[in-house]
Amino acid sequence: LNELRGMETEGGIATGEELLHVRDIGKVFRGYVEPRMAIMRYNGMPAIGIAVSNRPGVNIVDVGKAIEKRMHELEGMFPIGIEVHPISWQSTLVSESVRSFVVSLIQAVLIVLVVLWLFMGLGTAFVVGVCGLAMVIVATFLVMWLWGIDLQRMSLGALVVAMGMMVDNAIVVVDGIMVRIQRGMDRKQAAIEAAWQPAFPLLGATIIAVLAFYPIYASDEGAGEYCASLFQVVAISLLLSWVLSVTVTPLMAMWLLPEPKASEAKKDPFDTGFFRMFRSLLQHALRWRIPVLGGTIVLLVLAAVGFQGIDKTFFPESARLQFMIDYWAAQGTKIDRVSADMRRMEAKLSADERVEAVSAFIGMGPPRFYLPVEPEQAYSCYGQLIVNVRSLDELNELVDEMDAWGRENVPEALVLVRRFGLGPSKTWKVEARISGPALADLSTLRKLGNEVLGMFESSPYCGAAQLNWRQPVERIRLEYDPERGRWSNVSRHNIAEATKRAYDGLPIGQFREKDKLLPILLRNEEDDRNALADKLAVLTVQPDFSERGVPLRQVIRDISVDWEEQLIWRWNRRRTVTVQANAKPGVTADALRESLIDQIDQFAKTLPPGYAVEWGGEYEDSRDAQRSLVPGIIPAGVIMALIVVGLFNAYRPALVIVFVVPFVAIGITVGLLVTGQPFGFVALLGAMSLSGMMIKNAIVLLDEINLELAAGRSRYDAVIQAAMSRLRPVALAAATTVLGVVPLLSDVFWVSMAVTIMFGLAFGTLLTMILLPILYTLLFRVKPE
Question: Exposed, middle or buried by CB within 10 Å (0-12, 13-18, 19+), for 711?
Fold first, then answer.
């Protein structure tokens, strides 16, 4: 810097005969950018944030451990007063999440084994447990490793979801072996026949169950990428379960299944009180099939009506022990003012015993440490707090309290308190975009935006709301006089450089320091900068190719102050203002949007030509995610239909299945209403997977009807006998699936899918065993005997 200070001024400007040096006409010092672009504090103390990410293919848990080890080694080298604190430590969160899911996986395995033991006996449970669970799970982990699928929330959750379905094939095979042995068949022959006869129907049914998950894998939206491993893991585990059920399962069953008791040998296995009761129920249902079918249709209509009362959402909120507070002062507010205002919130939170730490980021948001959170752009008027709390209950309390406190104590700014989301999420859940032509009048757009903003704020469900254009800001407008400018050789560019030099600083070179290049800025002293507005008219402007300056007032007509739009957003190349809002705590974004639809529709009819309004936010994301499933649904549906028709070589069995599947909505609606869970994207995936399970059970029953017909029974007797034969495996498979997802009820991400599967499949089993025979007899014109 001394060399720089001693440099002679360019051109040898002299006073008398003495040359001037840089130090004679100004101060040369090294400093930081002013005003500051960003400020960070941790628990009220100045801080610097460091964000670290793992390389592709590297385990984040290993990265976290390595960093922790190195930080412990460096602690003694830090100056006194310098401390290191984690704000978000993903390796710990991942370890806890994986550990929790492993526990859920073990719980699901134990639940399935207990159910099998209670209903099929210890020996049978051992066979099914080893072939249908243990071997499948081990083989699934091996294939996941070969495919490069990591252990994470989605892949481990998919294993739990598939847990009950894994044993379906093994249950069918083992139940067939048990029935044949009890009727006196040789064990080897029983094993071969029970595995071979249903092998291809089970394969078709398994492929159909897998295809029910395919649309999410084929989706090109963010939600599809997030949930892709759901399909991969389910496909691996179910196909492996079929392979083992027709190979290893009959072999183990032949060796390990116990001999039937002497009193049960060669006895009809369905001649028990339970089966006699079911036979009577089915015969009465077939006798009164029209009233039963009519009543079920009424229930479906009621379910459709009741579904309207279920809250809708996209993805649920996270259970992270953190929440965010976004702070927007008026547009154009200086960063130091925002920093001072945010200290009040920091002090309040730091004094609360429920809070572990408060991290403040002023001028911009933190580095993107959590994928679902959209980073906010850099604004001097913006700040964000990341608050770490001690427990989930205290998190919910603090979110509600700080939301109310912000509205009451910070009326001069917009304060948005929000939790982290799971899966793709937005800062603003509800958005309405008003678009005009490419060069639409800015004042017209703002007027329309304010009109819609008023509608939002009048809704009883609306919390924080704003325009994404924020507020107009004041500007000093210099009216350049071209004629005076030509006489003085001063251009608009010269005026821009002069004003920039006077306040922000004009780059005039670079200073090299080892491997760093630092910009050299020329600007006025601080006192002159602070008084610039009063002395603007006499600001010296340097013309090109001249050493004499010209006062600014000599080349302008007028200096005035007016307002300008500092932020102008476009959507599809059209000027667009967006009204952004979040619902009040305890209210869903869909409920807020529903309360505004009629007003927005009426507003759209009054728009000038060339203007339009459309919904954005979570509604648009959810709609796009659902539409992105269509490219996967079409091929999956076609393949499902071809498999069903190919298995039965007829179209009427396929019609039976098509007619029975929609009725599962009755169970789904009841489940979501009883538990109070919203219907979101994850629940939609559950409903789609449920359709695959229903089709699989239906195929098993219809195939058994064909086997009974081939044995010479009448069509009515074949329906009764097939239902009796398939009752235990279908009910047991449903029980293992329903109870197998119970551990997911404690997980905020999977709970809606778990509820959908539990209630839908429980009611769906009744549909399979009662409604399907009714529809079959109607389509095949079978009269009850």
Answer: exposed
In the sheet with 382-389, reading across from the earlier edge strand, the strands are 45-46, 39-42, 355-362, 382-389, 322-328, 414-419
**Total residue count of the chain as it appears in this document:** 785
Other Cβ atoms within 10 Å of 335 Cβ, number = 22
- The structural domains of the chain, with segments of one domain joined by +, span 1-30, 49-88, 121-315+626-779, 473-564
| CA-derived radius of gyration, the chain | 36
d(CA 486, CA 525): 30
pLDDT tens for 157-185 read 788 778 777 777 887 888 788 878 777 78
Q: How far apart are CA 406 and CA 325, in angstroms?
A: 9
Band of pLDDT at residue 14, cut at 50, 70 and 90: very low
| 3-state class (DSSP) for residue 521 | strand
Give the CB-side neighbour count of residue 249, counting CA atoms within 13 A: 35
CA distances from 774 to 289, 662, 768 (A): 6, 15, 10
Closest CA to 588 of 455, 461, 466: 461
331's tokens: 């547009």
Task: Enumerate residues 6+ apart whose C-beta is below 8 A from 221.
Answer: 424, 624, 625, 628
- What tokens does 670 get? 């009841």
Please determine, looking at this structure, whether the domain spanning 121-315+626-779 carries the CATH number 1.20.1640.10: yes
Please calculate the CA angle 446-452-453 and round it to the nearest 5 degrees.
Answer: 80
Strands (E), 382-461: 382-389, 414-419, 430-435
Tell me if 678 sits within 8 A of 310, measured CB to CB.
yes
- CATH fold match for the domains 121-315+626-779 and 473-564: no
Distance spanning both ends of the chain, measured CA to CA:
106
Rounded Cα–Cα distance for residues 312 and 314 (Å): 7
pLDDT digits (tens, 9 = 90+) for 236-291: 988 998 898 888 888 877 777 767 665 555 556 666 777 788 888 888 888 888 99
CA nearest neighbour of 199 among 253, 246, 132: 246
Question: Into which CATH architecture does domain 473-564 fall?
Answer: 2-Layer Sandwich (3.30)
Residues 6+ away with beta carbon under 8 Å from 606: none
pLDDT at 13 over 50: no
- DSSP 8-state assignment for residue 7: P
> In Å, how far are 101, 198, 742, 749, 751 from 746, measured between CA atoms?
11, 37, 8, 9, 7
Helix (H, G, I), strand (E, B) or coil at 327: strand
Which tokens is 74 given?
A: 């460096």
For residues 719 and 782, the answer to whether their CB atoms sit within 8 Å is yes
